[in-house]
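In keeping with the milestone schedule agreed at the kick-off meeting, the structural modelling team has produced records for the first pair of proteins. Each record is given below as a sequence line and a structure-token line. The laboratory manager (R.T.) confirmed that both were archived under the project's standard naming scheme.
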Amino acid sequence: MAGVLVIGSMILDMVITVPRLPEPGENIHGSGFAMVAGGKGANQAVAAARLDQDVFLMGCVGRDTFGDLILDAVEPTGVDTSLVKRAPAASTGVALIAIEDGTGMNTIVVEPGANMALAVDDLEVLEPYYNRARTALFQLEIPLDVVAEGARRARERGLVTVLDAGPPHAAPLAFLAAFDVISPNQKELAALSGREVGGIKSAMAAAKELAGAGIKRIVVKMGADGALLVTDGNAVHVPPFEIDAVDSTGAGDAFTAGLAVALAEGAGDAEAVRFANAAGAAAVTVLGAIPSMPERSAVQRLLARGESM
């Protein structure tokens, strides 16, 4: 196996289904409340494990029941959680998620909690793990100095560094240049580029601008429109797979994990993005974040169909 090192967030998702997403100040009734393990780091670690990779997760939870719930959900998937820190003075991060019935669209509010207790000094324990992985996967839900230094060390030791650029940040180019691949969605791309993004044409323009500023590879998650691959200023649209969406929560995490797995296995850029598209598509067919992270067999079924919208 190629191996994936994930350094990122661990959050307990509190999920409720609503007939429609509420307007500001509006109170509507929902149904089907559930608490499920989530956070971009945990989601992507589980997804990579279900895609048949050895996965090592570094993150931070509190010494509380919510932290126990997350670890109890992640560990049975085969993810190595021995690098997870338990903060004595911070509570486990939580996310409040409303999911629109019928469309799968969602709104999410996050309180990061113990995720922000992860520190640069904690990276020292990673030294024995660099030769056990080929890609290192990061997100922006933990302190940025940890992300930047973690990426520097991983790249220095020969790993392909991948950044899921969420949640949106106006990160400096010097920070982004520490990664071999960055993968934002449209809102995140707008934050990174400072340009308005809404659709394939504007996303191509914004991604090309970042590429022109020295970012090697940019993979834009376009949701129902698939993905864009921009390398050396050249943009390719990779079409999506046709599926019946249930819940989009975690779909971007499945996509980025699929991208990291494919790159770890030596796939070319276009092949890796198509694999990522299939992973993201498979994820939206299941309710919840970690529960929706797809098995490799589900991704391979989509790839074997050879269909796109």
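The second protein of the pair:
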Amino acid sequence: MRIETLVQRFSEKRILVIGDIMLDRFIWGNVSRISPEAPVPVVNVEKEAVYPGGAANVARNLVPFAGEVHMVGRVGKDRDGQILSEILGDGGINSNGVLRTGDCETITKTRIIARKQQVVRFDRERLMPIASEHVEQVKEFLQQGAHELDGVIISDYGKGFLTQELVDAVIPVAQAAGLVIAVDPNPNNPLKWQGVTSVKPNRVEAFREAGIPEGLWTSHSDPLQDEMLLRVGQSLLERWDTEMVQITLGEQGMILFERGGKPHHIPTVAREVFDVSGAGDTAIALFTLSLAAGAAPVEAAEISNYASGVVVGKLGTATLTPDELLKAMRPKEFVSNSVKV
């Protein structure tokens, strides 16, 4: 089948992820009583685990599929930064491009989970933009290795690493090397993405970027009949001067806009949703890898949609394996709905 051929090609591809990286710490336990000190549950801790988070979770999603996964980001010279650097390496992610700087704190998100439900989350972060000297380091790193890559993913969590200066430095280098360049933007950090292959906003981000007042936002049961959504997609193609815009629609799946082509709606395939954490990371990881492996844009969108459907059926910022993706897609032929505009 076509999907099996593409998955085999995945293992030949080398992808670089650039963005805000963080440490995800999970603490699991049981709740059996309420604290006598305050009306809050007492969680008896049973186990703890740490994972790469933020843009590093995009890289983590690539590891089971791609031949090589490289990471560019920033951590502090602190204990959590050391832990994050170690788990990246132990997880098969090349972290030679990760900067360790003394002027920032490693972003850490700690989640307390009891009875499969998140009780509370507390964050450690001090947001600050990347310094110009570090932008030059990132640019030089990419210039030295671009010829050995097949694609670049820019994942913006709005934590300060991605600035217009950095974006303007790396995109021309990736373009010159003929790489697939995919972007997961952040509405709180509006940047210009001219020249990339694809940008993947969600519905809210897309409407905001297109300048549509919130009172005029629409949500039709059939996205291909949603005239406002269709106009937004076409508008963003022009605004960002990109080949594709992939708008994720939550329970409605996603809609893909291609320059000079028809919009394609790919319905959701998730049967049971336990946790949507990291689903967007899975989507952009598999979408980019599919394009790099030679998939048509609609095929890439189908694959990323199925991959996300598997991941949301798991608890936490989970990933999936090639076997899980093949099992999910084996009965499937590449088919999507489309409409002329």
